Fold this sequence. Notes:
224 residues, alpha/beta, 9 helices, 7 strands, globular, binds guanosine-5'-triphosphate, binds phosphoenolpyruvate
Amino acid sequence: MDGLGWTLVVPLKPLHLAKSRLAPVAGETLRPSLALAFAEDTVAAALTCPLVRKVLVVTDDPLATERLAALGASTAADLPGRGLNAALGHGERIARAEDQGAAVAALNADLPSLRPRELARVLAAAGRRRRSFLADAAGVGTTLLAATPGMPLDPGFGGPSRARHSASGATELLLAEVESVRRDVDTGEDLRDALALGVGPRTAAAVRALTAPAGLRASAGSGR
Ligand SMILES: Nc1nc2c(ncn2[C@@H]2O[C@H](COP(=O)(O)OP(=O)(O)OP(=O)(O)O)[C@@H](O)[C@H]2O)c(=O)[nH]1
Ligand SMILES: C=C(OP(=O)(O)O)C(=O)O
């Protein structure tokens, strides 16, 4: 099933609420722009992956909707107050209403280091399983959950979702050289790790605008 064209469902909280754990690094003013930059770099990289047919962002944020649509993503309004897994289920239903045979994967919006070639490696492996997932860099959560045509996504994101997805019968994808797909950014330490890996241009610019830790600014050159 290497030839599958995937629809990626990318969930994104309203920016004023997103990435709350980055408040100590970014402050309340710059945190929303950092969250938007992560989402833009994630979506831009995903859209250039040859195995991706479509990126559908589920969000209620007007600025993110405008900016991500301008990059070439499709967008859908969230189900307000229902949370992350409901948003993913909503995106999955939209994708499959448009194309019953769609292969659908949920991808977090906080992967500023994402490299299209590494995403292609993950999606190619996911195409050989019915339902599968990739653990995050910490080995606790999940950055990507994939379901081939006819398989329900059945998302169980949030906190220790690696164990939850495994218990639900999804196959864990154990792959080398896919660090950029696993490198989600929740904390200042995660951001340092992402910068060391290389981030997309919007995240690099947003980090340079931070007035806080000089160590972060110094390593915020773009380049993945
Ligand atoms: N559409 C939508 N996306 C969500 C929702 N909750 C979380 N997300 C997104 O799901 C992904 C993982 O979410 P988290 O890391 O838990 O949340 P976050 O806002 O990124 O970070 P924290 O505020 O620090 O928890 C991110 O892309 C979020 O924007 C929701 O209720 N609706
Ligand atoms: C929602 C998740 O991510 P985070 O670690 O960003 O909360 C998850 O891994 O299931």
